[in-house]
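Worked example

This section walks through a single chain of length 285. The input is the sequence exactly as stored; nothing has been trimmed or padded.
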Amino acid sequence: MSGMSIKKRKKMKGSRVVLYLALIVGALISLVPFYWLIRSAFMNMLEIYILPPLWWSREPSFDNFKTVFFADIPFFSYFLNTIKIVIPVVFGTVVSSSVAAYGFARFDFPFKQGWFAICISSMLIPGAVTLIPGFLIWKRVNAINTYWPLILPCFFGGGAFNIFLFRQFFMTIPRDLDEAATLDGAGPLRIYWQILLPLLKPVCITVMLFTFMGTWNDFFGPMLYLYDMEKYTVALGLQLFSSSYGSDYGAVMAGALVMTIPTILIFFVGQKYFVQGIVTGSVKG
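Given that input, the structure is written out below as tokens.
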């Protein structure tokens, strides 16, 4: 029996080694485009066009970044414009989706399961279906060329996927906490804000990361609703920069890298809670 158990352990270790190697190889392959972006950002035009291609610059330079920051295109203003949108969108998404999920997870009301099914099924609706009606509504209220069409919708539900994540996490919290707080005189809002919400840190950070990355990289929304160049976001600014310096691939790569850095930093800061929130939200409940 001991021999059989030793063989099983060796077989399991061998399978894990193969799995880890496969994951490492897959991760390296997926990182190649990002590495190519970084190496091109530090290269001059001659090195970029060299064949066979170089894996790193022989003389790394920050000239491409100087071109980005000292160009006629005001990248700093576009960064500030994007931050003006990102902060309220992240806040509104977390609050509205957590409140909606709190209702689905903790309260009983007629046709609750049906309403939740409708909420989840809304993820199947293509964005193109609501594109024209949404634009006409915002045009009717004179909100075109403002940030309101990009900010206000997140305060009305926060998205079906985010509601699902919060609901699944709420389902993992024992109702005994609610009952004990109710006996102490706490109402539903106080239970949500002071007792349950502090326990939702992993899923809150997960939703914040998703929302931040989606809003920061959003190109279509700002392109649709903004036509004043002074109000452009960083995604539109990068497109404008690319159309002006399209032949200077090193500068374009440097601009793309500058735009990507904030999302990378945010992800690495919250990656621990991100993984915990995804696992808990998708497996438990």
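What to look for: Residues 125 and 256 are 31 Å apart (CA to CA).
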